[in-house]
Structures are given as C-alpha cells and as structure tokens.
Amino acid sequence: MQLRYNYRVYPTPGQQEALARAFGCARVVFNDGLRVRQEARKAGLPYVSDGELSKRLITEAKLTPERAWLGEVSAVVLQQSLADLSTAYRNFFGSLSGTRGGRRVAPPRFRSRKDNRQAIRFTANARFKVLDNGRLRLPKIGDVPVRWSRALPAEPSSVTIIKDAAGRYFASFVVISTDEPLPPVESEVGIDLGLTHFAVLSDGTKVAAPKFLRRAARKLRRLQQSLSRKQRGSNNRKKAVVRVAKAYAEVADTRRDWQHKISTRIVRDNQAVYVEDLCVTGLGRTRLAKSVHDAGWASFTAMLEYKAARYGRTFGKINRFAPTSQTCSTCGRIDGPKPLNVRSWTCLCGAVHDRDVNAAINVLAQGRWDNSNACGAQVRPAPVPAQRREAGIHPGAARGSAHSAEGISVLRAERTSRSDA
Questions:
Q1: N or C: fewer beta carbons within 10 Å in the chain?
Q2: Active site residues
C-alpha cells in the first residue's frame, strides 16, 4: 500500500524565494486551465483535453512575453498542477453521476495567492533526489535541508513540498509500504467513541478525552483579540495572523501525535478492531460541534483503518443506526432510547450495564457478525425467546410500553374491553 512520510524542511531565504515562484507559477497554470475549460463550456465547445491544456498553457505560453517567467520553475511542477485540475474535475463529475461515494463534491475553484496553504509536487520525472548528506535536491530550487525523524522504508515515487499557514515547510514523500504483518493475537476489540471519554473499549478500558482545543482556548482567545486590534493590511497584522496559525498548528499537531500513539497501541494489541460509523458531519452541526471537532473522531478512525491494513489486522465499521446503547449485551433485549445523562441502566434480565462499556461490547458483537470469523460461527448474542404475553406487535410498543408491567396491564385491559364490546 502507498503511504506518506512527512518531514520538516528548512529552506534558506533564497530557496524560499524559489519555492514562492514555484507556488505562484503552479497557481497561475491551474487558474489558466480552469478558465479555459469554463470558457469552453460557456461557448458550447467540447471539453478541453489534458494534452491540449498542457500544450497551450505551458509549452506555448512560455514563448509569450506574458508567461515567459513560467520557464523559471520545473516543468513537472506545472504539469502536476494541471493534473490536480483534472483530478478535481473527475471528482466533481463522479459526484454528479453517483460513481463517487461520500459527500457531494463542488466544482474546482480558482486558487488565490492569499491562500494559507501552498503546495507543489515533484514526480520521478523531475529527478528529485535524497542526497547522502541528508539534503533533498529539488530541480531549480537547490539542496534543501531536511530533518529526518526516521528513514524512508523505500524509494519515494513523488514528493510534495508544502507551506502551511504557520509558515512552516514540509516534504511529503509517497512510498510503497513493505511492512511485514504483525504476529497474530487472540484479542479483538470494539470501540465506542464519545466526548466524556474519547474511547471506551469492549474490555472495559476507558481513554479520557484530552480536549486539546479546550485546553488552549485561553491562549487562542488572547491571540485572536490581539489580531482583531491590528490594522488591516499592516505588517503587524500579518505577524499576528502567523502567531494565531502557529497556535492552532500546535493544537492540531498535539492531537495528531496523541491519536497516532493510541491507534498504534490498539492495532498492535488486537487482531480485529471494530468502530461505529459516526456521522461526524451531522454531529458537527449540533450544539456539541466544538467538542465533536476537538475530539477528531474521523482522523482517529482513518488511522485505525490504514494501520490495520498495513499490519495485517481486521478493521470494520458497523452501521451508525445500530442501537448499541439501547441493546443489552447479555440478553440482546432492546431497552429503548435513553437521555445522555443516563450513564448506567439495569436490563429486565437483571444485568447492570455501564452505558459506554455496554455499547462497546455491542459494537464488537455487531462487527464480528458483519465481518464473520474464519470458521463462520455464530458470534452475535443468541436470540432470547420472547414471553408469550409479549409476543406480537402491540399499540404503543414503539414507546416501550410493552416492556413494562404497566404497559402490559393496559394492553390486557384494552383486549378485555374489546372482547366485551
């Protein structure tokens, strides 16, 4: 499988100017290509092909006085910018036709020089090279110092140079993973994600939510207030913007590092990992939006998924509508919905459940059922025969009245009155 390895790079002032030129040229070519295709669509002309765009916007444009400066950067960077435009159009058309899953994708938009994030990509055709002295040689930019936190496992096929909003530079290498699967283990785990506890495992382990954004709220508030007092367009405002971006980058980096450690430990210790397919987008529109985004459930489940595939583990997502918090993990009875302040409950079978641990156990059982084990054995909790007086569909059953003695007595009274009539 393909993996990305990110490293911090420290270009010199001259190399930063060369990178700025490359960022600008790539942005101009992207916008020119988007403009050509939009004008062709308005004029009713056929869709402009990638080869035609490359010929008109790169090869021929370099010969004109208006675009002669495109020759100052590597041609591969410009070609990859057009490739990004084509990818954006394919995603948009696939979203319209329904062949692309997930959320609906908007059409590509023009890139701005004021965007906080800038990136260019070099492929193998650009002949970038990692030198023996640890520097990264980039065409028409130079040998850029790299801080190697670990060695690359294989020869990279491409490298992307990124400048983030905080003014930091990164090199992102794409390599083919050659890792051996981890030794098999017996344990499997289901995970219930939440806000009070970030993750509750089916074995009873509870991982407290670190709430990185909440902890940094006071510092962020002070920096945002300082930014709001700066005059627009001034150098002091630009500096304040960078300070705010660095503070948010620190929060994101800390959260990402913590999630990597937790996900690696879970994948290493368990042969199969099952989680609930949460609708983070929908939860992000509620009054708990700030806490939901601070938790970072989507990035955490993505880490679990790719690490499980990388190390030969099983990963699965269960249906988000499965009543994991309402189902008794002992007898399988669905006890009905409960408010969030109810953290423990007692089933009619006598089992006392912690809400989150019970949900995690049900996630594990549902994940085993959906994915099935190697022997094809029945792993979901065995069905419990209903009592004779509870069998069938009764009025008010959806409200849970059929599960209480009061509801049963009311139903009996209704049957008696009907028979008398």
A1: C
A2: 192, 276, 356
Q: Write out the two tokens for 329.
A: 């993990």
Q: Which residue has the tokens 């785990």?
A: 189
Strand runs labelled E in 264-319: 272-276, 314-318
Q: Strand, helix or coil at 273?
A: strand
Write the CB contacts of 392 (distance below 8 Å, at least 6 apart in sequence).
Answer: none
Q: Are strands 118-123 and 352-354 parallel, antiparallel or unpaired?
A: unpaired
The strand ranges marked E within 35-132 are 118-123, 129-130
Q: How far is residue 179's CA from residue 311's CA, in Å, rounded to a whole number?
A: 7
Based on the number of CB atoms within 10 Å of its own CB, is 403 exposed (0-12), middle (13-18) or buried (19 or more)?
Answer: middle
Helix pair 235-269, 217-228: axis angle to 10 deg: 160
Q: pLDDT tens digits, the chain, 421 residues: what are they?
A: 889 999 999 999 999 999 999 999 999 999 999 999 999 999 999 999 999 999 999 999 999 999 999 999 999 999 999 999 999 999 999 999 989 888 889 999 999 998 889 999 999 999 999 999 999 999 999 999 999 999 998 899 999 999 999 999 999 999 988 778 899 999 999 999 998 899 999 998 999 999 999 999 999 999 999 999 999 989 999 999 999 999 999 999 999 999 999 999 999 999 999 999 888 888 888 888 999 999 999 999 999 999 999 999 999 999 888 888 888 888 888 888 888 888 888 888 888 888 889 899 999 999 888 876 444 444 444 443 333 333 333 334 333 433 434 333 433 444 444 444 4
Distance in angstroms (rounded) separating the CA atoms of residues 191 and 295: 14
DSSP 100: S
DSSP 327: B
Residue 336 to residues 1, 139, 244, 383, 400, Cα–Cα distance (Å): 43, 64, 46, 17, 6
